[in-house]
Amino acid sequence: TIPAKRKRPLAEDFVHSIQSSRGFQKINSIANIKPGDIIAWEFAHDIDKKIAKTTGHVMLIDTLPVKVENRAPFVPGTSQYEIFVLDSSRTHHDPKDTRVQADGSKIQGLGRGKLRLYSTPAGEIVGFANNFASAMFQPFNPDWAQYSTGKSKIGGIGRAVYQ
Asked: Using one digit for the tens of pLDDT, what is the confidence trace for 92-138?
């Protein structure tokens, strides 16, 4: 639900809708992810939202997850999976993101890049990281915040429900 004072949903609205299963089926398991699902995250602290001038970010999943060898940042008790995402952003997700030009310069706007998802042995998705050597683990669930290497965030993955 979008607050009456806004004309469009923000990232935090997507996160709250996914977590409360309003308009979305929440996807908790890595095995249930499908292309077309939405990843949304929001900053957990208002001060971070104010500094960033945004509440978070929303991405569209473009591929099924593929298990990869774990690499930094390491989170004990998890496995890592790569997915391609589509989004519009000032930044990029990995060195081969479509926003990175042949000369190494970067353009803004719609692009496709890779993210890594982290899951428990039972398949529960607990967070994500961009696909850089200097990537930071971003937990979806506060129970995993002790492993966070970036600003505190919450989020989730959801599939739009049409009625």
From this structure: 777 777 777 888 778 888 888 899 999 999 999 999 998 777 788 98
CA-CA distance, 127 to 73, in Å (whole number)?
Answer: 11
Structure tokens at 95: 């060195």
Please give the angle made by the CA atoms of 76, 148 and 73, to the nearest 5 degrees.
55
Torsion of CA 146, 89, 18, 159, to 10 degrees: -120
CA atoms of 6 and 160, how far apart (whole Å): 21
Which pTM was predicted?
0.88
C-alpha–C-alpha distance, residues 89 and 72, integer Å: 24
**Pair 34, 63: CB distance under 8 Å:** no
Contacts (Cβ under 8 Å, ≥6 apart) of 148? 127, 136, 137, 138, 139
**10/43: higher pLDDT:** 10
- CA end-to-end span of the chain: 16
